């Protein structure tokens, strides 16, 4: 009896790389940008986008200063002002991200929309994480 197996980990790409910059906007206008999450491996994976906690942001900043990698290799950040996870959208202040979770088949891709509605004057910035896990 011949038995074989091949172990792999999730392989993915995120375009564009962080940060996403909407630039200067006129109050009351809306801009949209798209992030492409692509499965470059041979296994399905699930993704979930959530807002970074202040503690996670502090840890990432600290490890960057020390020349180390971020706390988890499966987390990628997108700098934007966003909020707590709802079923399909992530909202906070001027920003909305959707979809916030899903599954991507091997060699598949998912477009993630980031909208900015400039309701108030000032600069907004927030860090998000994209968690990628096997199925």
TrEMBL record:
A single GO cellular-component term on record: axoneme
InterPro entries with a match to the protein in the record: Hydin-like, Ig-CFAP74_2nd, Ig-like_fold
Pfam family, any one: Ig-CFAP74_2
BP term (GO), one: axonemal central apparatus assembly
Protein name listed in UniProt: HYDIN protein
Region (Disordered): 58-78
Coiled-coil ranges per UniProt: none
Domain CFAP74 second Ig-like: 20-82
């Amino acid at each position: 009896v011949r038995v074989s197996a091949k172990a792999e980990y999730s392989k993915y790409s995120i375009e564009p790389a962080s940060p996403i910059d909407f630039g200067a906007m006129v109050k009351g206008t809306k801009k949209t940008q798209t992030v492409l999450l692509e499965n470059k491996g041979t296994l399905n994976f699930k993704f979930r986008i959530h807002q970074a906690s202040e503690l996670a942001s502090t840890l990432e900043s600290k490890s960057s200063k020390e020349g180390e990698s971020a706390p988890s290799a499966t987390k990628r950040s997108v700098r934007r002002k966003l909020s707590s996870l709802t079923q399909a959208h992530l909202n906070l202040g001027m920003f909305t991200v959707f979809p916030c979770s899903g599954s991507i088949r091997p060699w598949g891709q998912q477009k993630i929309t980031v909208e900015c509605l400039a309701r108030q004057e000032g600069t907004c910035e927030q860090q998000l994480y994209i968690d990628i896990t096997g199925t």
